[in-house]
């Protein structure tokens, strides 16, 4: 499961049952419906070791210092609505914040994410981050993506591992993103596409991969 992959390498935190999220209190009493309902979502997963290696400023953040293998950037709505900014609070209850930090460790990044896309999702902040946790808990991650060893693998092998571990995920429902660094093409992100009901779906033409046939996966620390 995802939480087995992203668990802090230094502190063995006890897994909090998903049912505990039901105790979280939404900090907003109301949330205005977006003017255009999203027709799907894209969950962007960042390969943390590669991202930290390529950006010296990032290397000082918690996800880098504490040895995360990967983290979630966000669950991005697919919508024709242009302005998605919102001013409502993204503060979560202490319990929910602790669970969300397992996959999204940077609190400031979580706040900025919500303020930039919250106006395009038909839910409040608490429900939005609960949805991310539900999706993350369900998605199974290939062991190769959290190995301490840096290795180069065929792109097709990585995709096939995702499909084998997640039988309902279509082959077109995942896209891999890469970035060149010192002559090697490192896997930097994985995009997974969802219907509005949480089922996997084919990614839209706007969600494209750019990885070559051979991809280097930066080992976790």
Question: What brief labels describe this structure?
Answer:
single chain; about 20% strand; two-stranded antiparallel sheet; globular; about 220 residues; 6 strands; 7 helices; four-stranded antiparallel sheet
> What is the approximate shape?
globular
Described by its quaternary structure, the protein is: single chain
Total DSSP E strands: 6
Low-confidence stretches: 7-30
Helix content estimate: 25-40%
Helices and strands, in order, run as HEHHEHHHEHEEE
**Rg result:** 17 Å
Give the percentage of residues in beta strands.
Answer: 15-25%
How would you state the average pLDDT, rounded? 84
Number of continuous helical runs:
7
Termini Cα gap: 20 Å
Structural class, from secondary structure content?
A: alpha+beta
Tell me the strand order in the biggest sheet.
Answer: 2-1-5-4
Largest sheet: 4 strands, antiparallel
Question: Secondary structure elements and their pairing?
Answer:
Layout lengths: L1 H5 L33 E8 H7 L7 H4 L4 E9 L15 H7 L6 H11 L7 H14 L12 E4 H11 L8 E8 L2 E11 L19 E4 L4
Antiparallel strand pairs: 1-2, 1-5, 3-6, 4-5
Can you walk through the features of this model?
This protein has 221 residues and is α+β, with helices and mostly antiparallel strands. Helices cover 27% and strands 20% of the residues. It is built from seven helices and six strands. The protein has a four-stranded antiparallel beta sheet. A two-stranded antiparallel sheet has the order 3-6. Residues 7-30 have low confidence and may be disordered.
């Amino acid at each position: 499961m995802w939480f087995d992959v992203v668990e802090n390498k230094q502190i063995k935190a006890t897994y909090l049952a998903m049912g505990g999220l039901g105790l979280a209190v939404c900090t907003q009493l109301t949330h205005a419906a977006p003017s255009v309902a999203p027709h799907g979502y894209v969950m962007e997963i960042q390969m943390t070791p590669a991202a930290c290696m390529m950006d010296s400023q990032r290397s000082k953040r918690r996800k880098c210092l504490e040895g995360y293998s990967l983290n979630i950037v966000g669950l991005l709505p697919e919508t024709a609505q242009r302005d998605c900014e919102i001013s409502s609070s993204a503060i979560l209850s202490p319990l929910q914040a602790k669970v969300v930090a397992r996959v999204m460790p940077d609190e400031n990044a979580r706040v900025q994410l919500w303020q930039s896309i919250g106006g395009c999702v038909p839910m409040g902040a608490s429900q939005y981050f609960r949805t991310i946790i539900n999706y993350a808990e369900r998605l199974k991650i290939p062991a190769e993506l959290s190995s301490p060893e840096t290795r180069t693998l065929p792109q097709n092998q990585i995709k096939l591992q995702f499909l084998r571990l997640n039988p309902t995920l279509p082959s077109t429902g995942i896209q891999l993103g890469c970035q060149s660094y010192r002559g090697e093409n490192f896997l930097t992100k994985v995009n997974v596409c969802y219907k509005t009901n949480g089922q996997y779906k084919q990614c839209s033409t706007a969600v494209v991969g750019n990885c070559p046939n051979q991809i280097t996966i930066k080992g976790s620390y």
